[in-house]
Amino acid sequence: MNTSASCFVAETSQPLTKEDGTFRYTNRFLTEVAPDPELVYLEWKAQIEAFRATGLPLHHLDSHHHVHGWPALQDVIVHLAEEYGTTFRALTTLDARRDLWVTERFSDAFYGEGVSANTLDAIQPGGSIEVMVHPADLDPVLPTVTSYLDERLIEKDLLTSYQRPGWWA
Q1: Do 103 and 90 meet the contact criterion of CB atoms below 8 Å apart?
Q2: Residue 117 belongs to what H/E stretch?
Q3: DSSP 57-113
């Protein structure tokens, strides 16, 4: 397999970072001009290699705010998963590559207004599933990087007290 970044066609020359060196893309990435897939490939590959340098096993690939499911970047995540012989977080936008999903299903229903025992109770048996959760204790840093704060405390309380169904592994 060709493992070079040259297999990606750049539709834009949009840099990945802003002038101050921070990453350009936020949770509103879908409203922005897509990045150059080759630049994303090189960045993600560098991050994977930095992780591998820790000696920990690479289990699967994932991206913040599910950016790997952005149509402009789907070929990049597929290429990297194949290159590293791994899988990635399941997303319906990557349904055509279920063979590379780390689980058979993914749910983001347990988020925001969906944080409830009813949401957890609604999970049906059948195949592996990843349920997106964001529990946390608040520290001085967290409020500087996210507005999703009180919800994290509610999630933590619910997840640590929830009586899961017997079919959950």
Answers
A1: yes
A2: helix 117-121
A3: ---EE--GGGGGGSGGGHHHHHHHHHHHT-EE---GGGGGGGGGBSSSEEE--SSGG
Name, in order, each residue with C-beta under 8 angstroms of 156's C-beta and a sequence gap of 6 or more.
135, 136, 137
pTM for the whole thing? 0.80
pLDDT tens for residues 29-73?
667 778 888 988 999 999 999 999 999 999 999 988 888 988 888
Tokens 């290159």 — which residue? 83
**CA–CA separation, 130 and 153 (whole Å):** 20
Ramachandran assignment for 143, one of left (phi > 0), alpha (psi -120 to 50 degrees), beta (any other): alpha
Type of residue found at 139: D
pLDDT band at 1, cuts 50/70/90? very low
Residues in a beta bridge with 14: none
